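PROTEIN DESIGN WORKSHEET
SECTION A - STRUCTURE
LENGTH: 343
TOKENS:
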């Protein structure tokens, strides 16, 4: 199941990825070239593995935004969420893809100066900034700061994380394809984000194995919905859905990738132990049209490696979201080896 080609994806394919490959150093400790397999005697350049990282989680989100939207003013909107709390933002990746804007992070009490600078770079004055979460997650003064800077803040918030995911789905036009994931942990929902974007769907959250009333009401109002349960908790909350659940978060992310991205050209990798890098990365991959694979910080899980190997013929570039403490240099090497067919 693949997402139809959009102007954004054409722009990225023709411009942004070329710039990235040329401007951002490769992180994979691999040979500079390898012999081609066609027997021509010429050398073929390695497919690039590009690390996108800043000095902290806010900086990493900015680096991802700059890579996804390298041209100033090219985003049509911005998705803004709290840097230190994940629940309200878990369903945000499909919104980023639908509104054609990056996911940026801010401190909860005030608009982070670096984030404001990136908003001013990436989105024209007058653009909408979708603020995910209520005042307890992101202070109301941040709306005022956005307004003063010439932007239009639009809050998307419910009484809790589950209702917020419903509000985001409604902002997407109430799509009938839904990926359910538990809202108690971040991993499964972040794997679901780019997949939902690829089919113009939404991510809705369950309360572990329990279906929240707001989500149940939303689903009951859809005509013949297509529902996928990402993870065991969601499967128990909605047994009628198609279950995508592995033995751990790594395997689940690979299963989601296999289901929704059968011939990917791009792939992202983020740590599965913390949410910020994967959150911003999921928004970017939702726009670019590829999956996010969740990884252990030190070694690439076997399920991820197998997915990369099985799709090496179509993958042209991989992205690592986060610095070497989030994803080690060894992971960069492994990803490069897998997509380049190096034993």
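SECTION B - SEQUENCE
RESIDUE ASSIGNMENT:
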């Amino acid at each position: 199941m693949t997402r139809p080609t959009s102007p954004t994806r054409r722009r990225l394919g023709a411009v942004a990825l070329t710039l990235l490959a040329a401007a951002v150093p490769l992180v994979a400790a691999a040979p500079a070239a390898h012999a081609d397999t066609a027997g021509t005697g010429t050398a073929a350049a390695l497919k690039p593995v590009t690390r996108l990282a800043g000095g902290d989680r806010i900086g990493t989100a900015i680096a991802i935004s700059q890579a996804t939207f390298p041209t100033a003013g090219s985003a049509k909107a911005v998705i803004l969420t709290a840097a230190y709390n994940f629940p309200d933002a878990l369903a945000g990746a499909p919104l980023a893809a639908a509104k054609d804007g990056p996911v940026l992070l801010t401190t909860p009490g005030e608009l982070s100066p670096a984030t404001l600078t990136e908003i001013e770079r990436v989105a024209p004055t007058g653009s909408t900034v979708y603020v995910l979460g209520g005042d307890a997650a992101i202070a109301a003064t941040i709306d005022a700061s956005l307004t003063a800077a010439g932007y239009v803040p639009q809050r998307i918030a419910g009484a809790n994380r589950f209702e917020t995911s419903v509000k985001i789905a409604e902002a997407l036009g109430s799509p009938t394809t839904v990926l359910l994931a538990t809202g108690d942990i971040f991993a499964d929902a972040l794997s679901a984000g780019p997949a939902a974007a690829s089919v113009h769907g939404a991510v809705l959250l369950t309360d572990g194995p329990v279906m929240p009333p707001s989500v149940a009401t939303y689903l009951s109002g859809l005509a013949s919905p297509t529902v996928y349960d990402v993870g065991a908790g969601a499967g128990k909350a909605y047994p009628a859905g198609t279950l995508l659940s592995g033995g751990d978060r790594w395997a689940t992310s690979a299963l989601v990738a296999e289901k929704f991205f059968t011939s990917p050209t791009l792939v992202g990798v983020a740590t599965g132990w913390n949410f910020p890098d994967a959150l911003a990365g999921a928004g970017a991959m939702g726009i670019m049209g590829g999956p996010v694979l969740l990884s252990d910080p030190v070694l690439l899980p076997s399920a991820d490696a197998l997915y990369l190997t099985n799709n090496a013929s179509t993958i042209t570039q991989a992205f690592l979201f986060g610095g070497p403490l989030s994803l080690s240099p060894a992971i960069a090497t492994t990803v490069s080896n897998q997509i380049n067919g190096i034993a």
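SECTION C - NOTES
The chain has 13 helices and 14 strands.
The first strand starts at residue 33 and ends at 35.
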